[in-house]
Design goal:
- The chain has three domains: about 5-65 and about 85-175, Rossmann fold (3-Layer(aba) Sandwich), CATH 3.40.50.620; about 180-355, Argininosuccinate synthetase, chain A, domain 2; about 360-405, no CATH class.
- Helix content is about 45%, strand content about 20%.
- It has 13 helices and 14 strands.
- Strand 4, helix 5 (about 125-135) and strand 5 (about 140) form a beta-alpha-beta unit.
- The longest helix is centred in the N-terminal third of the chain and has 20 residues, at about 90-110.
- The model has no long low-confidence stretch (mean pLDDT about 95).
């Protein structure tokens, strides 16, 4: 009886050719695991394709709500953005896929796990670190690090030789990854840095030129740092993100073109679309401005950078990430309220912010002098604050006097 391997299967070019490759080179029975994280594909067609290319079994799991609730929203609460721009759409999907892939392998009695990540990318680390954390006894097969195929053109040749239909072509060579949170684009014209993104590359967002000629308003409500409503109506997470993707997308929100530092050490260029996520994160930042005190807000910013690195580097299943999550959960416990945004041709403007637990005091902030703040107190505060500066100035003054006396 042949051993079993569970392959993280998407139906794209790489994983489509991996099924026959595993059959030919390892003789395994391949179980194709399809994780529905909102990629918007015809899942039935993906399943049928897996069977046609040699899978012995196909297992599908709808992970959309868990993906948002337990993976995406924690990164939102953290304010995690990699290198100022990237909202971690692909990065944060990998740990949940790997987790359920391991669960399938253990339930099916498989002895190995496989993925279609290249030896140059970040995803190999994200998958395999998760495998080691959750089931280190299982063998890991990474075909891109073993086979003699060197390019996507080679993969297309292999697919044609084995009669495998794929969406990619020699003239449409982009590599894309899509889920509820975003869609990424790599390859093609993006392999250089001296050319703009081709307009045909974008998929879920309009260009500013094609966006409506009038502003659109949207109000996002939060409870404990998690988005819960749109325009005053509470909506389940999946439907809410889908709605905000539509609203942001038609207003040209959420496009980025980034040259990023991969975990393995090289730089790569990608174009990402995260319309709904961009709206959510901007609204949350504005709400935090009302509800977080200065020291907490500033410290949170520093830890957000570390959290973003952990997610990007594939270190989700680590004690540090869990500890940081506990911190952010505590910090965001009081971040409840709503923010109204104005959207216009790629721009986001703030219309209003409101919270029942706002720390903003009009009485304290007003130019009108009230009883709640005694201006005379500022003199003592500034004097104490400046004590080290006065001491240093005195010391430097004495040194200068000695030098002049020589």
């Amino acid at each position: 009886m042949a051993e079993k391997v569970v392959l993280a299967y998407s139906g794209g070019l790489d994983t489509s050719i991996i099924i026959p490759w595993l059959n030919e080179n390892y003789g395994y029975d391949v179980i194709a695991f399809v994780a529905d994280v909102g990629q918007g594909e015809d899942i039935d067609a993906v399943v049928e394709k897996a069977y046609k290319t040699g899978a012995k079994k196909v297992i599908v799991k709808d992970l959309r709500e868990e993906f948002l609730r337990d993976y995406v929203f924690p990164t939102v609460r953290a304010g995690a953005v990699y290198e100022h721009k990237y909202l971690l759409g692909t990065s944060i999907a990998r740990p949940i896929i790997a987790k359920h892939q391991v669960e399938v392998a253990l339930a099916e009695g498989a002895t190995a796990l496989a993925h279609g990540c290249t030896g140059k990318g970040n995803d190999q680390v994200r998958f395999e670190h998760a495998f080691q954390a959750l089931a280190p006894q299982l063998k890991v097969i990474a075909p891109w690090r073993e086979w003699d195929l060197k390019s996507r053109e080679d993969c297309l040749d292999y697919a044609e030789a084995h009669g495998i239909p794929v969406e990619a072509s020699r003239t449409k060579i982009h590599s894309r990854d899509r889920n509820l949170w975003h869609i990424s684009h790599e390859g093609g014209e993006l392999e250089g840095t001296d050319k703009p993104v081709d307009p045909s590359t974008w998929r879920i967002s309009k260009s500013p030129q094609d966006a409506p000629d009038r502003e659109e308003f949207v109000e996002i409500g939060f409870e404990a740092g998690a988005p819960v409503s749109v325009d005053g109506q509470k909506i389940p997470p999946v439907q809410m993100v889908e709605l905000l993707n539509e609203i942001g997308g038609r207003n040209a929100i959420g496009r980025i073109d980034i040259v990023e530092n991969r975990f393995v050490g090289m730089k790569s260029r990608g174009a990402y679309e995260t319309p709904g996520g961009t709206l959510i994160l901007e609204a949350l930042r504005q709400l935090e401005a009302l509800t977080l005190d200065r020291e907490t807000a500033h410290f949170k910013e520093a830890l957000a950078l570390k959290y973003a690195e952990l997610v990007y580097f594939g270190l989700w299943f680590t004690p540090l990430r869990e500890a940081l999550d506990a911190f952010f959960t505590t910090v965001e416990a009081g971040v409840t309220g709503s923010v109204k945004l104005s959207l216009y041709k790629g721009n986001i403007s703030i219309v209003s912010r409101s919270s029942d637990v706002s720390l903003y005091s009009a009485d304290l902030s007003s130019f009108t002098m009230g009883e709640s703040y005694d201006q005379k107190d500022a003199a003592g505060f500034i004097k104490i604050l400046g004590l080290p500066a006065r001491v240093r100035a005195a010391v430097l003054g004495k040194q200068k006097e000695k030098e002049l006396a020589k």
